[in-house]
Hints:
The structure holds two protein chains of two kinds.
Chain A: E1 4-12, H1 21-43, H2 48-60, E2 81-87, E3 92-99, H3 105-115, E4 120-122, H4 123-132, H5 146-159, H6 162-167, H7 169-172
Parallel strand pairs in A: 3-4
Antiparallel strand pairs in A: 2-3
Chain B: E1 2-7, E2 13-19, E3 40-42, E4 47-53, H1 55-61, H2 63-73, H3 78-93, E5 97-103, E6 108-109, E7 116-122, E8 128-133
Helix pairs in contact in B: 2-3
Amino acid sequence: GPITLVIHGGAGNILRENLTPEKEAAYRERLTAALDSGYAVLERGGKSTDAVIAAIRIMEDSPLFNAGKGAVFTSEGINELDAAIMDGSNLMAGAVAGVTTIKNPITAAYAVMTKSEHVMLTGKGAEKFAEEQGLDIVPNSYFFDSTRYQQLLKAKANEKNREAQWIDPYIKDKKFG
Amino acid sequence: TVGCVALDQYGNLAAGTSTGGMTNKKYGRVGDAPIIGAGTYAENATCAVSGTGWGEFYIRLSAAHDIASLMKYSNLSVQQAADSVILKKLPALGGNGGAIVLDRQGNFAFPFCTSGMYRGYITRKGEGKVFIFK
């Protein structure tokens, strides 16, 4: 079949003038690594679900993207992660929401899909389930990224002036994944 | 947010999405990424979808499932269905973002209504490309 893999690393107010050549190169390198990782699974006859996990894990492990390590901060100053996966062959699906200690949330979503009778688990329950499944558990500090933390501080500073949030192009990005 | 859609040699589609949500979120806010049919959906009969953007709007539109439904019931192509939801319905409601969509024949689209989206594809011949800007 025509094996194919497509990825995204988030959409938003991404302008060339706001991205240094070094940063752009870093993004291109990680995106390529994610493509290669997922494609390697497909090329050796692996399943599409496994290819999806392989590609997403690369991006979750990179602080460049708002997922896994380098995720944005909540108002409480912690990282809260969500993930989902779906198998088009049988409409099986799994998801986790609001988890704070699962290193790769996409693997937890897959575990929910394949190892439970549920579709979505949240918070502490999802973390307990992931631990029982032998997934990598990390302290919340693992996800810390100083750039993201500065974004939180800036968002909080602007919180008192709601109007400013909508006209500040930097803060506008807080909505985006 | 990051996401991936894939088609394997057995003709099976899959979609996945992972995110940290939005900066400064409160009250246990959950976005579209873990909501099946909003930010993530896959069905061999139509397509696999992973979205990224202002999650509340993807939830209200059931965006990912809507793309699949347009292909199933209106017989639209991947590009037409994806464009209809991401470039028309989403901004009309006040939202924004993008999506990656892939069908069982290997046709794909990655529309977005923001100034950029980190994205890339790789096909059967191992030919891959990545893009950032419009």
